[in-house]
Amino acid sequence: MPLPQPYAYIVTYDTTQSLEKYQPFFNELMASHKWFRYMTNTWIVLRHETLAEVQAKLIPLIFNTDRLLIMPAKGPGMGWLPQPAWDWINANVPREW
Question: In angstroms, rounded to a whole number, what is the distance separating the alpha carbons of residues 70 and 20?
Fold first, then answer.
């Protein structure tokens, strides 16, 4: 059942195959309500699904030799990113701690 509001998740992965084999995986991430990617293998996505539902959609799109981590995203965040990245994070990731 869709969540009433989109929830922010961090999705990070290591792949073992050529990148063109992951197009369905990338397409699913881009089908999110909103998405953000400033680092090669890390996305922040806003989805109307629970964590288990997001996992169920992504796992079939990767290989069993790959690695995948999906976690709720909560801010504030810190690090070294360009200002547009921080603007997106501050506008879309809840500041819950």
Answer: 22
